[in-house]
Design a protein that fits this description.
The protein is globular. The protein has a seven-stranded mixed sheet. It has nine helices and seven strands. It has a single domain, classed as Vaccinia Virus protein VP39 (Rossmann fold), CATH 3.40.50.150. By secondary structure, the protein is an alpha/beta fold.
């Protein structure tokens, strides 16, 4: 199965901020997790690589002092990102990061690494811009560790799409090892995705999850119709929390 790149300038930018919003307490939790593995010196210069609509960029600057640079190839996603002190957003690609060598103390990739079409080139660029002793924070989905999502049964091809889209943990660590970045820790974060089942269902219907972009209009229509029937019939259990993996490299 060959997957086309997800075009965030098409549909995703119109829904992403709402569909993938991070609650304030969860944002605080992630900042605490990052702080536990980053140097204690302040300020820290951070690259938010694949920053999207800036869900984390301003919070990184507020917590770690900045400057924080969000690099995002989608102009529409960048336009939706909030301005904040110590933050700038740049047009750029993971394989051609528009920053000077050894200019950042940490690189965050929050659900963006799997979108990089040339991962070896991206990793070489990450190594180039990372200062000595810096850290790479990869919040990723790894196909050999991914839990089955509650909506997958309604969209039969999603499991296969996920296996194609997301690297295994071994594959991800191997590509970083080629530039001398080794895994230091794999942190399992208990994350709350939505406050209520109704909110989870409403957000899912916005299709802010990129795997949906690989389904046909008919698959989407049939899947959401079946999902609605299950919900209305009281047959659908929607978990509000789950395990999120953060791979720390250095």
């Amino acid at each position: 199965m060959t997957l086309k790149p997800v075009d965030y300038d098409a549909h995703q930018h119109t829904v992403y901020a709402r569909a993938r919003a991070v609650a304030p307490d969860m944002l605080h939790l992630w900042m605490d997790v990052f702080a536990s593995v980053l140097p204690t010196t302040r300020p820290l210069a951070i690259l938010d690589l694949g920053s999207g609509t800036g869900r984390f960029t301003p919070a990184l600057a507020a917590r770690f002092g900045g400057p924080v640079t969000g690099v995002e190839p989608s102009a529409s996603m960048r336009r939706a990102a909030p301005a904040a002190e110590g933050v700038r957003y740049l047009d750029g690609d993971a394989a051609a990061i528009p920053l000077e060598a050894a200019s950042v103390d940490a690189v965050l990739m929050f659900l963006s690494f799997h979108h990089f079409p040339d991962k070896p080139a991206a990793v070489r660029e990450i190594r180039r811009v990372l200062s000595p002793g810096g850290r790479v924070l990869l919040r990723g989905v790894f196909s050999d560790r991914a839990p089955g999502e509650w909506w997958n049964p309604f969209f039969p091809r999603l499991e296969a799409i996920g296996r194609r889209m997301f690297p295994t943990l071994e594959a991800a660590t191997a590509v970083f090892a080629e530039v001398g970045l080794r895994p230091l820790e794999l942190i399992e974060v208990e994350e709350r995705y939505s406050a209520t089942p109704e909110e989870a269902l409403e957000r899912l219907k916005l299709r802010g999850i990129s795997t949906f972009d690989h389904l046909t209009p008919r698959e989407l229509e049939d899947g959401f119709a079946a999902l609605d029937r299950a919900w209305e019939g009281g047959e659908l259990q929607i978990p509000l929390t789950g395990r999120s993996d953060l791979l720390v490299l250095g």
